[in-house]
Amino acid sequence: MSNTKVLPLVEPDVAPCCPPLSERALTPEEAVRTAAMFKALGDPVRLRLFSLVASHEGGEACVCDISDVGVSQPTVSHHLKKLREAGLLTSERRGTWVYYRVAPSVLAAMGQLLKPSAA
């Protein structure tokens, strides 16, 4: 019998990091947090890894399934660490493998941030 638990894809009580950019100017703290997310995604390898995790069946991906992005495994680990530090991914070790998933409501929060104002 497996000891793994199924994690929810989205936690409904998680609020977006910031209001839409068209609503009001970001506070200094919001700007730092938002810049860290976009800086992490500013690297093509990181963006590809993020998209591989986000689009993977079941909402999570084993590092063994997403490591073929044209760089060495230590470099993949470095980029995944940067995505975790920016709050974009979460990870869970299961035996010898690490599984990644997009942090709860990250995609919704990023979409909300870039949402155009209602005219």
Describe this protein's structure.
With 119 residues, the protein is of the alpha+beta class. It has helices spanning 28-41, 44-55, 63-66, 73-85, 106-113, and strands at 60-62, 89-94, 97-102. A hairpin with a 2-residue loop joins strand 2 (89-94) and strand 3 (97-102). Helix 2 packs across helix 4. The longest helix is centred in the first third of the chain and has 14 residues, at 28-41. Mean pLDDT is 82; it is low at 1-14.
Key phrases:
single chain, 119 residues, three-stranded antiparallel beta sheet, disordered N terminus
Task: Describe the structure concisely.
By secondary structure, this protein is an alpha+beta fold. The chain has helices spanning 28-41, 44-55, 63-66, 73-85, 106-113; strands spanning 60-62, 89-94, 97-102.
Helix content: 40-55%
Strand order of the largest sheet: 1-3-2
- The radius of gyration computed from the alpha-carbon positions, rounded to a whole number of angstroms, is 16 Å
Which stretches are poorly predicted, pLDDT < 50 over at least 5 residues?
A: 1-14
Number of strands: 3
Mean pLDDT: 82
What fraction strand? Answer: 5-15%
Structural class based on helices, strands and sheet pairing: alpha+beta
Largest sheet: 3 strands, antiparallel
Question: Helix-strand pattern, N to C?
Answer: HHEHHEEH
**Helical element count?**
5
Q: Termini, distance in Å?
A: 55 Å
Shape: elongated
Oligomerization: single chain
